[in-house]
Design goal:
Layout: H1 2-17, E1 35-36, E2 44-52, E3 56-57, E4 61-70, E5 75-77, E6 90-93, E7 99-101, E8 110-112, E9 115-119, E10 121-130, E11 137-147, E12 149-150, E13 159-170
Length: 171
């Protein structure tokens, strides 16, 4: 089965790449394996990760704000895209001892041909609370994403990537 899936992905890539500049893969109903990335995938042109409030102390609640810029003409799918064959975007906050993260809050999606998607600048807010057990010092707040960028003609392979920002927790 793995060889057949690889073969289908290679044929799709060849047919798309021969007609369009850049590397892209035609969307198929065969799920592609995600690539692990430390940098942003091609369909995300930039990101900004911030934390509010800027002073983090025990008992403080705040939000981790991640703003992704999706490549022009492309979109990423909503966490609930409306079709089981579409690649739902998943966001998982990085684990930080003594910090409780809530469920990511997404902006309202746009609907394209029945699919819920996000285009342009997408701001995801993840609420958090600093527990009394949190230790003073440096920490890293961020999130892991699993997403796929598509437009009307092509889809990039699904990719995993991480965004993060250094913070300081004080007592």
């Amino acid at each position: 089965m793995g060889i057949l899936r690889s073969f289908v992905n290679v044929i799709a890539a060849i047919s798309v790449c021969s007609n369009a500049p850049g590397f892209a893969v035609a969307q198929t109903k065969v799920p592609a394996k995600a690539t692990q990335r430390t940098s942003l995938p091609k369909f995300i042109t930039s990101q900004k990760t911030t934390v509010e409030p800027s002073t983090l102390r025990s008992g403080v609640s705040g939000k981790l704000i991640i703003t992704l810029a999706v490549e022009d003409t492309f979109h990423i799918y909503d966490p609930s895209p409306g079709d089981p064959y579409l690649t739902a975007t998943k966001v998982t906050p990085l684990k930080v001892p003594g910090v409780a993260f809530g469920k990511p809050v997404w902006p309202a999606p746009v609907t394209i041909k029945g699919a819920k998607v996000h285009e342009g600048s997408v701001e995801i807010c993840i609420p958090f609370t600093i527990k009394p057990s949190a230790k003073s010092g440096k920490a890293t707040f961020g999130a892991r994403f699993y997403a796929q960028g598509c437009n009307a003609a092509t889809c990039y392979p699904p990719a995993s990537f991480t965004v993060a920002v250094p913070v300081s927790i004080k007592q």
